[in-house]
Design brief:
The complex is a heterodimer of chains A (about 260) and B (about 450).
Chain A: H1 10-15, E1 22-25, H2 27-32, H3 34-49, E2 54-55, H4 66-71, H5 74-90, E3 95-98, H6 101-110, E4 119-122, H7 123-132, E5 147-150, H8 164-171, E6 176-178, H9 208-217, E7 223-226, H10 229-241, E8 249-252, H11 253-259
Parallel strand pairs in A: 1-2, 1-3, 3-4, 5-6, 5-7, 7-8
Helix pairs in contact in A: 3-11, 7-8, 9-10
Chain B: H1 4-31, H2 43-55, H3 64-80, H4 82-93, H5 98-102, H6 105-134, H7 149-173, H8 176-181, H9 188-191, H10 200-225, H11 232-242, H12 255-265, H13 297-305, H14 311-315, H15 317-320, H16 327-347, H17 359-362, H18 366-370, H19 377-381, H20 388-402, H21 408-420
The chains are: A alpha/beta (about 260), B mainly alpha (about 450).
Bound molecules: iron/sulfur cluster (2 copies).
One iron/sulfur cluster (SF4) binds near residues 309, 310, 381, 386 and 388 of chain B.
Chain lengths: ~260, ~450
């Protein structure tokens, strides 16, 4: 992936007097976190492959405020929201796709009453849409025969009842999909939500991500697939804690599709 | 003299129902201590939920064993209580089994026969429930918050059911004319022989005693509800109706904050402008919740409705990994505090007198609140649409916005968002750098 990616911004589109099909909301993790940046780039590759006319906000994007809200700081959340909504509305954005279920949930459900009304979808839903529309073809060679188990991100699954899109997309890899005992509505959290990502856990007898990784390992997978940058970090750490780095990898659905 | 039983019955009935009504009034008063919520939207969806979740117990059967058993007790209990209607009429008018007179014999027999079969099913189920709690010791019934009263409460209700069902069957078995009729005595005909050799008068006395104890037992049960987790058999319905009809991930936006943010962001706003009318006599908004009065009426109804089943806690990632947080405890604490506040109001002629206590700190600890991942597993699991997470978030709001008492790492994270628009100390201007990095 050494070739330079073409990532147009909304400002550039605006300058040309054009509107992209969709705005790609990169999110804070996708912009700054080393592991998550790889997911961002993989998704951009997929967008290019499907010839999607997309744009990002770039330096005009700011944190959604989701994590501040869950930490209890409603002020900070609403400040961030109002700021972002101003930018989004100024660009007359209609449709937003994001690889981060937290941003997805926040913009979709919590921005409307503050004046931000958009059609917001998760990247697994968008990839499914692109495949169904025949815009994206997946060869399905790379992971053929591998065992993949999908970990439902709480903010995609339980929070918004999106369970099928990631699974449908993963079928295109021709891998064998296995389910953990706790999946879909009963999936166990990876441990990152509710601002836990940014603090140490309270005293207990185990780390949540290790427990969840054990759920995944019980399916004997080659790959643990996720659809969230935070889940990705948690599961990757869990794999390290279980000393399984040699045999199991954690990949985002976007990466799996970009590589197939 | 012959009216004495009727009068006695009427007195017992009025006392039982009256005391219950008085307590329900208190319960409503207590719930109204909470903040008002607007639930006038999506009526049809709300009714669908009531039919599916409360009446149809769709969430209960997600755990097939306990779900199935619960449905038996629930259906059995509700249907058998139709019999109470006959008892009440008989009691007031001094009739005996009025149903025989107004219904065709076959219908009456069918009804009583079904009640008897259900009574046996309920008895068997209740025994299994008791074993699960006391012998098999299902884990979710053993948590820290289930010590003491909650544990006894769970068992007391089972004993109640056993006694009521047995009284019902004995009443039928010792009712000589009813047995002679031989219709509907599907079960009691096998109990009747136990009383062979009793004189007619003795049988009649036993039958009357069982009859009286049955109705008195039901009235006691009704009044016991108010003090028990079994309130859910009544409150599950309104609770499900008022439960959320939004995606679970959606957390309400605080309106008081919206107003302030608007003022802050609006360059034309005059900071010295007189506050809008009506705002003058309003108490300044308190952000988040530190006590039950700060919670919403739905959250308080949630607390009264909680069945203490622990399904939420058994799915909670924090609890599963040994943290103090238990969503069931959040609900039980909220109810306990609300009851305490209610008693305080009763003792002080209708006004709450500050007792130096509150929900936060005296019941629920910061450590519990900060352990939550907001994963919604508890909300998903709850068979009666309770949302423990919303209470956790409202209390976090209080901690952060009123007390600045977030853990240090979270304060750092929030400062970063404030300064750089990201939870980490990166420069806002570097936000698109990923696109140019190899
Ligand atoms: S939302 Fe919080 S309390 Fe509820 S299950 Fe998840 S971690 Fe536990
Ligand atoms: S909140 Fe719901 S799931 Fe949890 S104990 Fe109460 S009734 Fe059961």
């Amino acid at each position: 992936m050494s070739e330079q990616l073409k990532v147009p911004t909304m400002a550039e589109f605006m300058a040309e007097g054009k509107q992209p099909e969709i705005l790609f909301w990169v999110g804070s993790a996708g912009s700054y976190d080393d592991r998550a940046k790889k997911i961002t780039k993989a998704f951009v590759k997929v967008l290019h492959k499907a010839n999607v006319d997309f744009a990002v906000l770039g330096t005009e994007e700011s944190n959604t405020g989701d994590v501040a809200k869950r930490a209890g700081n409603e002020f900070l959340f609403q400040m961030q929201a109002v700021m972002n909504i101003e930018v989004l509305n100024a660009y007359e954005v209609k449709r937003i796709v994001t690889c981060d279920p937290h941003s997805f949930n926040c913009i979709k459900n919590e921005y409307p009453s503050l004046g931000g009304n958009y059609d917001v979808i998760h990247h697994t839903q968008y990839i499914q849409e692109l495949i169904e529309a025949g815009r994206l073809t997946v060869e399905g060679e790379t992971y053929k025969g591998k065992r993949i188990t999908f970990h439902d991100p709480c903010y995609l699954g339980r929070a918004n009842s999106v369970y099928d899109a990631p699974r449908n997309v993963l079928k295109n890899t021709n891998a064998t999909l296995t389910e953990m005992k706790r999946h879909k509505g009963t999936a166990l959290c990876c441990g990152a939500g509710g601002a836990q990502m940014f603090k140490d856990a309270e005293p207990g007898n185990k780390e949540i991500n290790v427990l969840r990784t054990e759920d995944a390992l019980a399916t004997n997978p080659d790959i643990i697939a996720t659809g969230c940058p935070y889940c990705n970090t948690m599961m990757t750490d869990g794999i390290k804690a279980k000393e399984k780095e040699g045999t199991v990898t954690v990949l985002d659905v976007a990466e799996l599709i970009a590589n197939s | 003299m012959e009216y004495i039983p009727n009068i006695l019955f009427a007195i017992v009935l009025i006392a039982g129902v009256g005391y219950f009504a008085r307590n329900i009034n208190k319960l409503i008063r207590n719930i109204k201590l909470g903040q008002e919520v607007d639930a006038s939207d999506k009526k049809s969806e709300r009714w669908t939920n009531v039919v599916r979740i409360a009446l149809g117990q769709s969430k209960m059967v997600k755990r097939p064993v306990s779900g199935f058993l619960h449905v038996i007790v629930y259906v059995g209990f509700v249907i058998i209580n139709i019999e109470v209607l006959e008892i009440i009429i008989d009691g007031i008018f001094g009739t005996h089994r009025i149903g025989i007179e107004i219904l065709p014999l076959s219908v009456y027999g069918f009804l009583i026969g079904s009640f008897e079969v259900l009574a046996v099913l309920v008895l068997v189920t209740v025994v299994i429930f008791w074993l699960r709690r006391n012998v098999i010791k299902v884990k979710r019934f053993l948590s820290a918050e289930m010590k003491g009263w909650p544990k006894s409460d769970g068992n007391i209700i089972l004993y109640f059911e056993v006694v009521l069902m047995c009284l019902f069957l004995v009443m039928n078995a010792t009712d000589t004319p009813f047995q002679a009729m031989d219709s509907g005595n599907v079960i009691s005909q096998f109990i009747a022989p136990w009383f062979n050799g009793f004189s007619v008068e003795a049988l009649h006395t036993i039958e009357r005693t069982a009859w009286w104890m049955h109705i008195v037992g039901i009235l006691v049960f009704l009044n016991y509800l108010y003090y028990s987790k079994h309130l859910h058999i009544l409150l599950a319905f309104p609770n499900v109706y008022y439960g959320s009809v939004e995606p679970k991930g959606k957390v309400n936006n605080l309106e008081a904050v919206t107003n302030e943010v608007k003022l802050m962001m609006d360059p034309d706003a005059d900071p010295y402008a007189a506050p809008a009318e009506s705002a003058a006599d309003e108490v300044p908004a308190k952000f988040g919740a530190s006590d039950v009065m700060d919670l919403s009426q739905v959250q308080l109804l949630n607390a009264y409705t909680c069945t203490e089943c622990g399904r939420c806690t058994s799915a909670c990632p924090a609890n599963l990994t040994g943290k103090k947080l238990s969503p069931r405890k959040i609900m039980m604490d909220t109810r306990d505090r609300l009851v305490e506040v209610g008693k305080n109001i009763d003792a002080n002629n209708g006004v709450f007198k500050d007792d130096g206590k509150q929900l936060l700190g005296d019941y629920i600890l910061n450590e519990e609140l900060w352990a939550c991942t907001t994963c919604n597993a508890c909300v998903e699991e709850c068979p009666v649409s309770i949302n423990p997470l919303s209470i956790i978030l409202d209390m976090r709001r209080y901690l952060v916005m009123e007390q600045s008492a977030a853990p240090m790492e979270l304060n750092n994270m929030m400062t970063n968002i404030e300064n750089n628009g990201a939870p980490w100390p990166y420069n806002q201007m570097d936000r698109l750098n990923w696109a140019n990095e190899e």
